[in-house]
Design brief:
Layout lengths: L22 E6 L12 E7 L2 E5 L6 H11 L2 E6 L5 H4 L2 H12 L4 E3 L15 E4 L2 E8 L8 E5 L3 E5 L18 H16 L5 E4 L8 H27 L5 H9 L8 H18 L1
Parallel strand pairs: 3-4, 4-5, 9-10
Antiparallel strand pairs: 1-2, 2-3, 6-7, 7-8, 8-9
Helix pairs in contact: 1-3, 4-5, 5-7, 6-7
Amino acid sequence: MEDDVPAGGQDDFQRDPDAPPVALELIRADNPGPMTLQGTNTYVLRDGEESWVVDPGPLDAQHLAAIIRACGSRPVGVLVTHRHADHTDGAGTLRRQLQNRTGCEVALWAADTRAVAGARKPPASLISEAGVVGHVIHLPGHTADSLGLLVDGGRMLTGDTLLGDGSSTVISPPDGSLTEHMQSLAILRALAIDGRISSLHPGHGSPATDPLEAIDAIEAMIAHREERIAQVKEARAAGALSMDRLLRAVYGEGLDPALRGAAEDSLRAVLDHIARTR
């Protein structure tokens, strides 16, 4: 897989000028929770009779059945945006069921091929008979293997690099890196300001459905991360050196015990970022 962001705006999407736009359908898994929000967002891309699945989600029979119905008769590939189980657990089963149902050979792609049995590295672009469907972009930070997919028309599938509804993704070192995450957010910001992102479609939460909303969401997350970095620096300067004292200084006394582990991971990511960038 090539890590470079595609150069040049919508001209990168060389397609049959008479072909209709790539269709994008969201199918949300029934696995809500503190880390998954309303559930994992699975996306089905349709270009004519061909289809691709991004993030199959959990191994849930009803969810997989809904994906299969949306794929139609010519599934081409299954792409996972990163290694976490809420995005990958259904991948192998979905691939087998699609192949058995349609007789088509279905590719399975993951940047970390160890995370998904039978997966291979993704191509730089997804290609249909009509031309380019989407460009695969490396967006590390949430995990080292995190990917996004910039789909025909400027629709950006972000995986867990950027969540919806103002939620912030958890970064758990050493696999996750706030330094790399900030760089990935800068890439998304540059693409959005350049007019190459028309909407954001996250791995969890609601989409940002127009260009201005997309820019606002990216800018808000960058500002949130910068504010958290400043909070940690200020707390450490005031003598909060232990994790318990940092948690109280940054999150207050009312932190939900169910979120403590994620909060500790996020603070470790901030401390690692400060050490790397001082």
